[in-house]
Amino acid sequence: MARWEDLPKYERDYLAGMRLPEFDDMPWTQATPVSESRVALMTTAGIERRDDKPYPWFSGEFRLIPTDVDPSELVMSHLSPNFDRTGFQQDINVVFPIARMRELEAEGFIGSVAKFHYAFMGGSRPQDMASHVPELARLLRGDAVDTVLMCPV
Predict the structure, then answer these.
(1) Residue 144 vs residues 97, 106, 108: alpha-carbon distances, Å
(2) Residue (of 72, 88, 78, 76) closest to 48 by Cα position
């Protein structure tokens, strides 16, 4: 992982100027107890299945990752001089903890693991992701997901 001072100026300027959404402290909904929750993963690691089309540059698109995916079918197209992919290459759970979710479900700690999970390209700006939110919300509701574990990379 690069240090801030080692990044090229154009990249420091881009990251420092990124506008993030602001939220108030009011919860959007009443929380479901974890032991009853259906949990989906959402990662910004830029992972996808081998047969998925690669992410367009800063598109804000997401990829569906089925719960039963074979980890050897996942690739990471997130390329950056600031990002060390060694951990992902050794264990997908570093960026997409699907095995941990299955364990938590088997132990009864969570209610269930969602049928699908979602991966974004980490360098995408929130405003580029906004047009994809309605589809994402529809898919989450369709899978009865009430909890999303965010896995930022």
Answers:
(1) 20, 19, 18
(2) 76
> In 3D, which of 38, 36, 27, 45 has the Cα closest to residue 87?
45
Cα–Cα distance for residue pair 16/34, rounded to 1 Å = 35
Rounded to whole angstroms, how far apart are CA atoms 57 and 118? 18
Query: CA-CA distance, 109 to 32, in Å (whole number)?
Result: 13
Query: d(Cα 12, Cα 10) in Å, to the nearest integer?
Result: 6
Q: Which two tokens stand for residue 13?
A: 């300027």
Name residues whose C-beta falls within 8 Å of residue 110's C-beta, 6 or more positions apart in sequence.
34, 35, 37, 39, 101, 104, 147
Could you give the CA distance from residue 125 to residue 57 in angstroms, rounded to a whole number?
A: 11
Tell me how many degrees the CA angle 70-75-76 measures, rounded to the nearest 5: 140
- Distance from C-alpha of 62 to C-alpha of 42, rounded to nearest angstrom: 9
Domain residue spans of the chain? 33-151
pLDDT in tens, 12-48: 888 888 877 787 777 777 888 999 999 999 998 888 9
